[in-house]
Description:
Layout: H1 26-53, H2 60-83, H3 95-110, H4 118-128, H5 131-151, H6 158-240, H7 245-271, H8 284-299, E1 303-308, H9 316-337, E2 342-348, E3 352-359, H10 369-374, H11 384-394, E4 398-403, E5 409-416
Helix pairs in contact: 1-2, 1-4, 2-3, 4-5, 4-6, 5-6, 6-7, 6-9, 8-9, 9-11
Amino acid sequence: MHHPGxxxxxxxxPDTPGPPVASPDPDAGxxxxxxxxxxxxxxxxSLSRFLTHHxxxxxxxxxxxxxxxLAVVHTLGSWLAHRRPPAPGQRRRPWPLAVVTALxxxxxxxxxxxxxxxxxxVYTALxxxxxxxxxxxxxxxxxxxxxxxxxxPGPVDANLLLLPPxxxxxxxxxxxxxxxxxARQRALIADLVRTRRELAATERREGTLAERERLxxxxxxxxxxxxxxxQMLLQAADRTWDGDPAxxxxxxxxxxxxxxxxxxxARRFVHDLAPAELADGRALDQALRSLAERESAxxxxxxxxxxxxxxxxxxxxxxxxxxxxxQGALANVREHAGASTAALTLSFLGDQAVLDIxxxxxxxxxDGPAAATSAGPRDGRGHGLPAMRARLRQLxxxxxVESAPGEGTVVSAAVPLGPATPRPSSxxxxx
Length: 431
C-alpha cells in the first residue's frame, strides 16, 4: 500500500501549504562584498591622494582619524550584515549607513577628493533604504559630490559637474528596475512553490480516496462475502440442528473453513493485499477452478469451470482483478439470481483474456430498473457492478453484462494481454 508523502520542505500539516522558506541570495551576497571592497579601495585611494598632495596640512590628523573611523564602521556594518543576512526582499539595517554617511560628509567637507567614495555609497543607500527615502539621500550625496568637485583647486570643469548627476541618475534607474524585476521573480517563485504544494496536497487527497475505494472493493470481494457465507451456513445449521444434527455439524465445519479462509485473506491484506488463492505462484485458471469447486461445496450451487485456449501469463493486478470479479459475480448469483447452475469460463483470445460468469437464474432487463438495482449496493453488503468496472478501468479492460428476464445473466470481464492505458467508462461498459 502506497501513501504519498509530503513534498520536501513542506511545513505545517500535510494538507496545509506553508509559506515559502526564505534563504539568502548568493548573488546579493557577492554584490555586497564587491561594493564593500570598492568603498574601502576608494577610501584608501582618496586618503593616499590627500596625503600625497597636501603634505604638512593641519587637517591631516582629522582626515586620517575620520578615514580610519569610516573604514572601521563600514567594515563592522558589513560583518554584521554578513553574519545575519537579510531574507530575499528585505533590506539591510540602516544604522551603519547613517554613521558611514555622516563620517563621509565630514570627510568631503575637509577633503573634496573623498567625494568619489559616493559611488558605492549610492548603491548601499538604494539597497538599504526604501525607495522614497533612498532617492532623496542619493540626490543629496550627488549634490555634495558636485560641491566637492567645484571646491577642488584649479579651474572648474563643467563636465565634472554634470557627470556625477548623470551617473547617479543612471545608477538609480538601473537599480530600481532590477529591484522591480527581482520582486516579480520572487513573487513568481513563491506562487510556483505554493502551487506545487497545493498540487501535492491534492494528489495526496486523491491518492487517499483511490486507496480507500480499492480497499473497499477488496474487502467487499473477500471478507464481506466470506462473512455472508458464514452467516448463511450458521443460519442453516441453526435451522437443522434439532432435526438433523449431522447436517448441522457439516454446516458448522464448512463455516469454520470459510472463517479460516477469511483469516488467511485478512493476513494477506496486511502483507500485500494479494488474493490468497493466487499465493505461492498459483495460476489464475487454477484459482478459478478452486473457486468453482469451493462455491459448489459451500453453497450447494453447482458451478462449473472451463478453460478456453492456451493460458498466457497475466500481470498480478489482472489476475487479482479477474478473481475478485468472479467472487463478486458468484456472490450475486448465490444471493439474488435464484439460479440452479453457474459457470466460469476463462478464455484467451489472442489479444485479451475474457472471464465469463454465467447463470440460469431469473435475469433482469439490462436497461430497466432492475439493472440500476443490480449495479449498486444491496442491503449495505457490496458495491456490485460499479466496483467491477472500476477494477477493469484501472487495467484498460471492459465489463459487459447481458441479461433478460427469465433467461439468466452473463457477466463478461475482458482485460488486454498487452500494455494498456486505463481509460474512463465508455459505451462498451454496458449494463
